[in-house]
Structures are given as structure tokens and as C-alpha cells.
Amino acid sequence: MDRIAKIKEYLIANPKDNFLRHALALELIKTGNDDQARGLFEALLMETPNYIGSYYHLAKLLEKLGERELAIGWYEKGMEEAKLAKDQHSYNELQTAYEDLVY
Length: 103
What we know:
The chain is mostly helical. It has a single domain, classed as Alpha Horseshoe (Serine Threonine Protein Phosphatase 5, Tetratricopeptide repeat). 80% of the residues lie in helices and 0% in strands. It contains 6 helices and no strands. The longest helix has 17 residues. It starts with a helix and ends with a helix.
């Protein structure tokens, strides 16, 4: 069974498992299913804004899709959430990607 099918199988039992949703989105990107991955990341972050790791990947995907302004907004939101969570590592990662895009 491929990775996507296996993750989807796990999600049947745990449909709101953020780790699995994030992992599925990453696998979808690898297979070129960018729109599906985007939808998963957006839904995950709307429902669980403190799932900080997904901000970086969503913003990077939006950059790839040419959605620069949306990417900037997600980086900014991710930095806000990382600050609230006192997650300096994630904040630095998001800030570096943000600055690379903006400057």
C-alpha cells in the first residue's frame, strides 16, 4: 500500500488527527496534488491555528503556486502563532522564509 493510501486509512479512524493531516498534505505535494494539499493545510490551520509546523509548508506551497501575497500572510500568521507558543525555532524558520520572499 502506498503512503497516501495508508495515511488515508489511518485518517478514517482519526479524521481530525493533525499529524496525519499534515503528513497527507506533504505526501500530496510530492505527487503533484498541490490543490488538495493546500486545502488540507488551510483546513488544518483554520481548525487548529496553533499547529505551527503547517504554516511554513502552506506558505512554501503558495510561493510555488505563485500566490506571493497569500504566502506572506501565512508566514506572518505563523510567526504570530509561534510567538504565542514561545516556539523560537519555528519563529526563526518562518521569519527566514518570510524575509527571503519579501526582501
